[in-house]
Design a protein that fits this description.
It is a single chain. By secondary structure, this protein is an all-alpha fold. The chain contains 6 helices and no strands. Helix 1 packs across helix 6 and helix 4 runs antiparallel to helix 5. The longest helix has 26 residues. The protein is globular and about 40 Å long.
Length: 183
């Protein structure tokens, strides 16, 4: 496979450069695997929510592996925040699971809502300029929407303080996305 030439980008351009897309997507998928690891650490394997969480975690791991490989293939520098995402993602998952299954699902719904919008912005920016990346993002976006829909169908909105919890998590996602693009 020959490396795909990244579209030209200069500071001030409105479109996000492809290396930043790859960096932030790898960081986000890594963070998602850590959130689910934190939830499973609290719930264990016998909790009713664990089977669905294991399924979603496996999909996130597949997404992360794709971006890990793309970082190497295209020579993209990973985010310097990786050690932070490790701890912060696990803590977010563990804390929401400790609050209860509805809070864990609220976490998933909030994160996946932001990721859906993030991936759609990337797909719009890419157009047909990078089919490998566009196709992967489209595939992963569909799975992220499945996660969000599952979370909403399984009590996310019943979490204590749902609007505030969801808003805080979504804000955190926006900050993490912005940081991982640059640092």
């Amino acid at each position: 496979m020959t490396p795909q030439a990244a579209p030209r980008w200069r500071p001030g351009d409105r479109r996000e450069p492809v290396p930043a897309m790859i960096r932030v997507d790898q960081a986000g998928e890594y963070g998602a695997t850590r959130i689910y690891a934190g939830q499973l650490a609290v719930f264990g394997d016998r909790h009713p929510a664990s089977r669905a969480i294991h399924h979603m975690a496996a999909q996130e791991e597949r997404h992360r592996a794709f971006f890990d490989a793309l970082i190497v293939e295209r020579g993209v520098r990973p985010t310097l925040f990786q050690p932070f995402w490790d701890k912060a993602g696990f803590a977010l998952g563990a804390i929401t699971a400790a609050i209860g299954p509805n809070a864990a699902m609220a976490c998933t719904a909030a994160v996946e809502t932001e990721i859906d919008m993030h991936y759609q912005e990337q797909r719009d920016a890419l157009g047909d300029s990078d089919p490998q990346l566009s196709d992967a993002i489209a595939d992963f976006q569909a799975e992220e929407l499945e996660h969000r829909d599952h979370a909403l169908a399984n009590g996310a909105e019943n979490a204590v303080g749902y609007p505030m919890l969801s808003g805080l998590i979504r804000f955190g996602c926006k900050v993490a996305i912005a940081a991982a693009k640059r640092i």
